[in-house]
Amino acid sequence: MARLWSPEKVIVTLPELGNTIAASIPAALHRARVAEGERLLLVGTGAGTLYGGLIYQH
């Protein structure tokens, strides 16, 4: 995702927090500054090759 969008629009938690798997989305939301009405694309990974995503409007 970071290669597709500008760096200021992507929050990456891996370098500071390590591999947090299920906690990566809550950790990113804690760091994000989300404006009212803004849409977010949340993408996370799990064990193996599992991944998921959703679009959320604040």
Automatic annotation (TrEMBL):
Gene3D superfamilies: 3.40.47.10
Membrane-spanning residues: none
SUPFAM superfamilies associated with the record: Thiolase-like
Superkingdom assignment: Bacteria
Domain Beta-ketoacyl-[acyl-carrier-protein] synthase III C-terminal: 6-57
UniProtKB keywords: Transferase
Protein name from the UniProt record: 3-oxoacyl-[acyl-carrier-protein] synthase III
Protein species of origin: Microbacterium trichothecenolyticum (Aureobacterium trichothecenolyticum)
Taxonomic lineage of the native organism: Bacteria, Bacillati, Actinomycetota, Actinomycetes, Micrococcales
